[in-house]
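FAQ: What does a multi-protein file look like?

Like this. Sequence, then tokens, then the next protein.
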Amino acid sequence: MPSNCTFPLGLTANGRRAFLACTTAVLLLPTSAAFAQEWPEMSFRLTMTVSAEEPLGQGISHFIDRLSEETGGNVSVDFFPSGQLGQDLEIFEQISDGTVQMHASGFGINANYNSFFAPWLFRDFDHVQRVLDSDMAQGWNDALSAEQGVNVLMAYPRAARHITSNGRPVVTPADLEGLRIRVPQIPILFDAFTELGADAVAMNFGEVYSSLQAGLIAGQENPLPTIAGFSIQEVQEYISLTGHVLAPEYIYVNVEWWDSLPDDLSTLMQELLVEGQQVAADATAIAEEEILANVRAAGGTEIVDVDVEAFYVAARPILDRIGPEHLGEETYRVIVNLAD
């Protein structure tokens, strides 16, 4: 690979675009050039708790196929989507002990990586990426490596979370007042909704559909693929496009295994994971558009555009007060400073 295509961990947005352009040119070389490299014969385990059909799964499947293609089949992946080897907490133990080598998940391995669930704090995925590229996040990774033998290689974008409701749409922050809404028990997310006036309820997700149907709660919040995947729109009058959480998906690796790979192989794998990132981003955008079109065509549930900026303004003083407590003073300060 040309020296100017070296992959640096923690690329900026412009750097990622330049890197993709450079690596694309290299990967378009004749297949024989790719196979000229002597790749070791090996396999490794890669897990996900979501299905291979979801956007994250499409990005990871692209990575797997391209890795086989680029190495002439010498490097293969034993792929276990849909939680076949366990849920996230179980898999984190398996990554630590080396029985699983790579895991793709939106579940934060510790509180640091759940900071991205702070609502109306992150502006876009570039903002998320700037935080992950920061010295602070490198410190998170160093500590994670030392304590659990795990590293976060990179992040993939994930569909934003939106609010669904009965009785009234959530168009402005005032519409949250008194709304009985199920919110996951992630402290920064749950407490922010409560401080904004919502009657936030802790509830297992498996109970949400029936509770909405029975009127025990009036709303919930989730990404569009989750809303549609569990038919939440069947028991909700409104989907308000609040886009309040932009938490990403993470690519975790066992550090000892990753460090044992030949440099040219680990570089190739990172390049192909970047390709997969774009595949996942494109699939997410397509899925969201298709879901909105299908909901509109079915009728019965109104798609509502909201004044998102008003939510950022309303949430900021609340987050300034509770953010340092929940996320840590340094984490909150870095996130805010990297907003622009």
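And here is the next protein:
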Amino acid sequence: MKTLDIVIPVYNERVEVVRATVKAVKQTFRSMEGVTIIVVDDGSDKKYDIGSLKKEEGILFVQHEVNRGYGAALKFGILHGRAPWIGIIDADGTYPVETLAVLAKDMDKCDMVVGIRTGKVRQIPWSRRLPKELLNRFASYLAGVRIRDLNSGLRLFSRDLAYYLWGLFPSRFSFTSTLTMGALMGGFRVRDVRIDYYKRTGKSSIRPVTDTARFFRTALRLALLFSPMRVFGPTAGILFTLGFLKGIRDYVLLGQIGNLAFILMLTAVELLMLGLLGEMIVHSRSLRPRDPATPTFQGTLMRLKNEEESEDNYLGL
């Protein structure tokens, strides 16, 4: 019986580093039955020779003809598995593979186990530490729960959770951020496990400015989906306060309240109403998990195996 799928996305990594990661995963789960290792080549350049992994025993190798992005690679790998639990890990040597076994011990106690990069070894580049901390704090406020590592790439989660959030997953690096916030704001059980984080082997494909901005936008979008008042409420409060103070100033200095003060306060009321309407919609609708056995899922899987699709079609899964 299949119990766990380990998905390893690969893009322009040295093949020997990928082989070392795969070997470490095999060693970690050598005594556990039903583990499938799925390596996804996300359109790597031919010079990296990632295709040679097709001959590797004990893994399922799947491939994109062109680079589609981190999230798209993970979704492709997830669709090729059938185990009730899914694990993900990068192939660049940054995460301690052996900690996957530690995370697996909590599979029956929650819906997702996240390896948070707060261990003794934490080799995150200084240029990324401040944006990462700001992003964690911003996401924590929006989710209403402390988030210590929003986008860790080492985690285990149930297939039910993946399909529950399937339509929200982007094709790029915001996949893990979406998974974290969606699980927490959707009421799923999430556990954190402290792990080390090492200096990566090779060059990172993350674009610090662009991808950080995308992470913030993703967090905001998820907050609007799950808890609109956390966005509209404070904004309305700030505008109303500004309008009220402006009104007092106008009345003291001019003997009347100016138009700008009225506009600010009325805008605040409108935003508050939008937030309340959004909350009503959130509480009245339900996001239903998508069954992998449905014709839609099976048909999409077959198309992805046999033909190159546009990114728009791929994101429509």
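Q: Is there any per-entry metadata?
A: Some entries carry free-text notes. For the entry above: Residues 229-284 form one domain.
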